[in-house]
Amino acid sequence: MRSRRRPATAEPAIDPRQLLSLLSAHDVEAMIDAAFQFLKAAVGCDFVTAFYRSTGDGLLKQRDSRGRESDPAFMRRYMELTPALPAAMANPGVKILTTRAVMPLSDSQLHTTAFYQEIMRPEGWRHAAALCFWGDPLPETPIFVTSVYRGEGQKDFSNRDIASLERVYPFLDCAVDRLHEREAATTVRDGMAMATHDGARGFAILDRNLVLVQASPAARRFSVAWARDGDAAEPGREDATWHLPPVLAAECHELHSEWRTLVRANPNAADVRPHRRLSHARIPGLEASVTIVCSSAAGLGQPTFVVEFERREASVLRDTQTASVLQAMTATERGVATALADGLSNQQIADQLGKSVAAVKFLLHRIYQKTGVPGRAALVAAVLRALRDI
What we know:
By secondary structure, the chain is of the alpha+beta class. It has helices at 16-23, 28-42, 72-81, 84-90, 99-102, 107-110, 114-123, 159-197, 217-228, 246-265, 314-322, 331-341, 346-353, 357-371, 376-389; strands at residues 47-53, 59-64, 96-98, 127-133, 144-150, 202-206, 212-215, 275-279, 286-293, 304-311. The longest helix is centred in the middle third of the chain and has 39 residues, at 159-197.
């Protein structure tokens, strides 16, 4: 008798409705919900987790298909202990990481690790396969990670399971890229709205890498003047080449560092907009302000920088210098400013006023923005001058 050949098991069909839901997601939360359903249909698992970038500042948020969401303290500890992050950073662009690849340990060895005891066991994790998504250009760490899990007593993911994940990876990658681009456009639009609302003629919008997105003709002329320590290009030169002066580039980097600190302390503080104002050292009246902008709804977005230039007349400068900066502040801001004038550090101000250091930094940024004072030393001088006039 001729033996019958067992037919090969077909790959699970991709549900067009799930795919449409995934690719049409309008924000990161909707995309996560769609990704959970998409992955559950692709491979048998106990639950799914999404780790995603919070306002461009690393993998700071996590929630799973059981409805649990981690807090910032958990994520900071996770980032300290996880072996997956070093593995991803050592292999930029890697698509799939598995527990057995990242932690090639026996069960007894695994159970002694801090990551297992503090993270895996409390969360119910045992076997995992993580899909990493990077965006473009390639960043230092993935911008989005979603993982499928099986708990203790379940079988590890097989080679066939991994092949199924590789099959659905391009669809998820497309969804992440679409959302990433949409949120990048949102931050640029927010930056444009801010600049035009302020009435700035000389404004420029820069992306996270300080690449020019858009600049008005006035901004191009002022940037050339700043870089050359001379007058702006003549009126007929509307196509003046854009130059980001090194001092402004340095301010952008410093603002981004401070903003990251604020967001680490409070991942939902996306709409905090640190601000700096600078005066040119040798061109009277030529000033520039730098503001970092990120949409409060962003989940995969990167921040945008708004640079605004202004050339003020001498009479306006004199009026600004003699005005009392204290009148422009709230009572809380005056408390911070006067403590700063007393020579206290940010930590000492925070201790004296019962606030966090991040809150003090935010208040200082708001004071700079309100008063137009370019920096810490200038604020101290202005406050002392104003106190003498009282």
